[in-house]
Amino acid sequence: MIVDSLPRLQKLFVSFVSNPADFDDLAECWSQAASIHELIYSMNNGWLWLLKDFLLAPHVQHLPYLSSLSLDNAGNVSVPPPGAHPLLPNLTTLTLGSAGPSLALYRLTTLLSHCPLLQRVACKSGKYVEEHHQNLQFFQLRHLSSIETDQELPLKIFSSYIETPVLRKLTLYKYSGDWITEFVQKNRGIEDLILNVRTSPSYDIILTYLTQLRVLSVGGHGHGHFLRPLYTPLPRNSGAPPCAETLQRLEIVISRDKLHMEYFEKLVHARFIPVNKEGYTAAGCKAMHELILIAVEYNQVSKQVQESVLWKRAKITKPRSEVFVLHWDFEDTAETS
Predict the structure, then answer these.
(1) Largest CA distance in the chain
(2) Which of 10, 111, 163, 185 is deepest in the core (most CB within 10 A)?
């Protein structure tokens, strides 16, 4: 096989379009490719349903330096129960794709238990099934700093079985509010949060727990109604800080619809316009200087924003066609108008 003549091969992309029986032949070749650091498996969706279990062990047991693994047939992956010798001892990046059947949460949990050095995991399966398994045990991923997922259900396993003491970044592409609250209660050290909330403003409960949040990217549509938690003070009797006051960087993604200026202007006053010499806004937040707006209908949103009176206080840059950045420079630290 060709890998035999490439003893220093570090990255390998494998695409399957034929019979599942080819898996067995392929696994035997990896003993001659021990130098591989990154392995990507892409499989034809047409016959993945015929493969009840994709036994991962034969494909990675001869790859001691493997640090990055991408599998688009996540629903079929099968690994042995966790033991003294993890299957992927040096893996730092794991990406699970959407081909094949639904990904059972117990399979995902067991796979993660074999990755003690994991730093980043991306779950993009699109389809998940919650199946109970009696043999699952609690464990730690001491190095995991970033979780990316298309839905909230995979977060449940981190709340139930996996401790992530250094988790700092969470990316969630479909917010529903079902599982994320319990998750952030146990991961309050998150500093970087990316959310697609569509029209829902109910994510304000998340902000009450993330008292170290520094970077927030929130996307949605519905005229900007989803921006309300960023400028509406939380109830004082909740004991939580208002409006995620620790934010240092804010990015807004407008998916569609018109951006109504009532939401935009309230947001700017709450997050960017200082009202005292200490540089705090009327909402009690430390004033930020930069707002990043990303819009599908860029020209429409740009025109609306420029017509706002607040535009006169800001400078604009346009690093990409769909992106514009508003930057406020205040010579006087307090607002005079």
Answers:
(1) 74
(2) 111
pLDDT digits (tens, 9 = 90+) for 285-336: 888 888 888 876 666 666 667 666 566 667 777 767 777 787 876 644 444 4
- The tokens of 106 are what? 């117990």
Q: What is the CA radius of gyration of the chain?
A: 24
| Residue 264 phi, psi dihedral angles, 5° rounding | -60, -45
* Residue-wise pLDDT tens digits, 201-243: 788 888 888 989 999 999 987 778 888 888 887 654 454 445 6
Half-sphere exposure of 73 (CA within 13 A, CB side): 27
Q: What is the Cα–Cα distance from 279 to 29, expressed in whole angstroms? A: 63
- Amino acid present at 43: M
